[in-house]
Design brief:
Layout: E1 3-7, H1 8-22, E2 26-30, H2 46-50, E3 55-57, H3 62-74, E4 78-82, H4 93-100, H5 103-106, E5 116-121, H6 136-140, E6 146-148, H7 153-165, E7 170-175, E8 182-186, E9 198-201, E10 206-210, H8 214-226, E11 232-236, E12 239-241, H9 245-255, E13 258-265, H10 270-282, E14 291-295, H11 306-309, H12 313-324
Parallel strand pairs: 2-3, 2-4, 4-5, 5-7, 6-7, 10-11, 10-13, 13-14
Antiparallel strand pairs: 1-8, 6-12, 9-11
Helix pairs in contact: 1-7, 3-4, 8-12, 9-10
Length: 326
């Protein structure tokens, strides 16, 4: 067993290196991914080791980057595309929604597009406008796309492997403020399926459902609630499309209370779909309405105000208290 402690950033770098090393059809392309190694250094050293024909610095043209990746996938390659920041993806949204997501169905299953679109997302780094968005619901709403987000180093390593191996397009959201969080990675022990939720803390009174950057916040909230005698279960969703509703249902039936937490705005967020579906599935098991905690329905604020915008420990614990009060 090869277990190593590494950051999420390092785990992604090692996973991309492994993908390039094991499959000559894997390519990485994006703005500054080569010589610079990416803004967050996720692709650091890869162009040096694998060459400019496999780790490709592109022009500043997101639509062209994704469009080129689609063409490469049609010719048998497995492109991994980096969108430098979450807010920069929208020039490529047309290519992703109208071409990447639709081609398999349009070709009646005869054409596959194994493209991974990597997007650093979320706030918490003190960035300027367009650098702290959480647009995952926009992509999860589109049939034909898989949408995932790791919360720890082990998942970052293995979920990237599984995304690259998928014959379907995968939107891979990387929680940028967690890039330097460290954890143990077993590079030889393959975990469960890409879209399976994982219980990261057992509890009996209430279930917190989260993914990506909010999993750490929920674990901190569960630890704080334990000091008051409350037993909180934390479920790491890992995938926003498809969603592992069976895992959420199992936990909801166990605890009777569910709070969904995500960094994106609550309004039309993924928590709304989870709340509706779990209410349908578990109505007679629930002791309280499914509550949601997330960002506000406003443009992402300037860096000085982002601590007020982002869901933190107090807002999660407030929702826990409201649920337990029913």
């Amino acid at each position: 067993m090869a277990v190593e402690k590494m950051s999420i950033a390092k785990a992604l770098n090692e996973s991309l290196r492994h993908a390039l090393d094991t499959d000559p059809k894997v390519l990485i392309m994006g703005e500054d991914v080569g010589k610079l190694g990416g803004v967050f250094r996720i692709t650091d050293g890869l162009q040096k080791d694998f060459g400019e024909e496999r780790v490709i610095d592109t022009p500043l043209a997101e639509s062209g980057i994704v469009g080129t990746a689609i063409g490469l996938a049609l010719r048998g390659y497995r492109p991994i595309v980096e969108i430098q920041f979450d807010g920069f993806v929208f020039p490529a949204y047309d290519q992703i929604v109208t071409q990447l997501a639709k081609m398999h169905a349009r070709a009646l299953g005869k054409v596959k597009l194994p493209v991974v679109v990597r997007i650093p997302y979320g706030g918490g780094i003190g960035a300027v406008e367009h650098h702290s968005e959480s647009p995952e619901a926009l992509f999860a709403h589109v049939a034909g796309l898989k949408v995932v987000s790791p919360s720890n180093a082990s998942d970052a390593y293995w979920m990237m492997q599984q995304a690259v191996q998928s014959d379907d397009p995968v939107i891979f959201f990387e929680p940028k403020r967690r890039y330097w969080d460290k954890g143990e990675v077993d590079t030889e022990s393959i975990p469960g399926p890409l879209h399976k939720a994982v219980t990261v803390r057992e509890g009996g009174d209430l279930t917190l459902v989260a993914y990506g950057p909010m999993v750490k916040v929920c674990l901190e909230a569960a630890a704080a609630a334990q000091e008051e005698g409350k037993s909180i279960e934390v479920l790491d969703l890992r995938s926003m499309a498809p969603i592992d509703f069976d895992a959420i249902q199992k936990s909801a039936e166990k605890t009777g209370r569910v709070v969904v937490v995500h960094e994106a705005p609550v309004f039309y967020g993924s928590g709304a779909e989870i709340a509706a579906r779990i209410t349908e599935r578990c109505f007679y098991h629930l002791e309280a309405p499914v509550l949601r905690v997330g960002g506000y329905h406003v443009p992402y604020p300037p860096a000085r105000l982002e601590d007020e915008y982002l869901p933190g420990l107090d807002r999660v614990l407030d929702a826990v208290d409201r649920s337990l009060a029913f």
